[in-house]
Amino acid sequence: MGKTNFASILDVAVLEPETTASNIAQLCSDAKRYGYACVAVMPHRVKQAAELLKGTAIKITTAIGFPFGATTAAVKAFETAEAIDNGANEIDFVMNIGRMKDGDYAAVKEDMAAAVNAAKGKNKDIIVKVILETCLLTDAEIVKACQIAEELGIDFVKTSTGFNAAGANPAILKLMKDTVGDRLQLKASGQVRTYEKAVEFTECGCTRLGCSVKSAIAISTAAIN
Length: 225
Known about the structure:
By secondary structure, the protein is an alpha/beta fold. It has helices spanning 21-34, 46-52, 73-85, 97-102, 105-122, 139-151, 170-180, 195-203, 213-222; strands spanning 10-14, 38-41, 59-64, 90-94, 127-131, 156-158, 185-189, 208-212. It has one domain: TIM Barrel. The radius of gyration is 16 Å and the shape is globular.
């Protein structure tokens, strides 16, 4: 049996602050070549990516409240609406991690609702993913965050920004999957660097994998070699 081609479930990110327009052009070229699900760019690069991917099925997401999740709910709502106006058709936003650590679940819910309501208010078909940054949370906090996300109708719970101490691992993915079942989708990011990790994380129930350009090319080409 041949290898699975995971390109169609990869969200490929170029989010470093030093990213140039030429880096985004290369990302979009790679996306068309390999057939990625989605490209992930910073908000000020959304218009460029949308123009480069016009007429394709490749989605464009952007990073809201990135990478710390510490912007206010109102700012997240504004960022989300502006990104969609600029051509984003998916949204990945970072939860307010500090409020979760406070145990202030009402504030966490307000924060998540701001992003999802702004997105779905623009277009109910916009895919919204909440980034939990699981390496900073206890198991109980991860479960609570997943439960709030489900209550609000968020489409995906996602492990990580990829900019912190650690990313996805099977134990965390199992905990998230056990919490949301098949009602929400699961996205792993951080540590999605090899074909073998792509296999492992999809076996944990992930339907999207977030990774860098280098990792995406390695994963995609492994399936055809």
